[in-house]
Amino acid sequence: AIYGINPLYNRFYLEPHITPELAGTVLNYNFRGKKLVITLKNDSYSVADKKYKLTAAGPFGFNSSRDTLSYFNGNHADVSLQAVTALPLAIIIKNWDSGKLEWQQQAPGRVRYVIRRLSPNSVYRYSINNGAAKYLRSDALGTVTVNIGIKPDATTIQLVKS
Question: Given its phi and psi angles, is residue 146 left (phi above 0), alpha (psi -120 to 50 degrees) or beta?
Fold first, then answer.
């Protein structure tokens, strides 16, 4: 329980309660035939398989398939962010609250993001590396899709409710 490993029906859920002495722990875990590497630091947890890595400061769910990495915010059973790419991808969740979503990615090519669980039919300001803002409207289900062509260096993406 201290490591917070919770295999669930639709995701690998991580909610560690580590002590300072356990900070820096790295665990190997088999989940649905995949070898996961779990890294537990103070206020930074990550789950990685051979292709994808997801890092966040708090509890989260992880799932991956052939071309999709899914992030589940906190203990929610529904996907919050899906990244679709055929190439390796690392994502660090910087902020994920109802008004501001921010994540950093490292990927060598194009990524399609599907952001879910937003306010339905709402306007969001979208920017990459604090560049020029674009405005997007979520659909009736609270979903927005964006396609990003990215260089291999780290890129920060923000979605802020207007």
Answer: beta
- C-beta neighbour count of 6 within 10 angstroms: 14
CB atoms within 10 A of CB 39: 15
Beta sheet of 5-7, edge-to-edge order: 5-7, 12-14, 60-64, 68-73, 81-84, 110-115, 144-149
Any idea which residue has 């490993």 for tokens? 5
Q: How many residues does the chain have?
A: 162
What is the signed CA dihedral for 25, 48, 97, 156, rounded to 10 degrees?
110
d(CA 62, CA 21) in angstroms, rounded, equals 25
131-159: string of b/e by CB count within 10 Å (b at 16+)? Answer: eeeeebebeeeeebebebebeeeebebbb
Tens digits of per-residue pLDDT, 37-64?
A: 999 998 899 999 999 999 999 999 999 9
In three-state secondary structure terms, 21 is helix
- Per-residue model confidence as pLDDT tens digits over 90-126: 999 999 997 899 999 998 888 999 999 999 999 999 9
Give yes or no for residue 153 having a pLDDT over 80. no
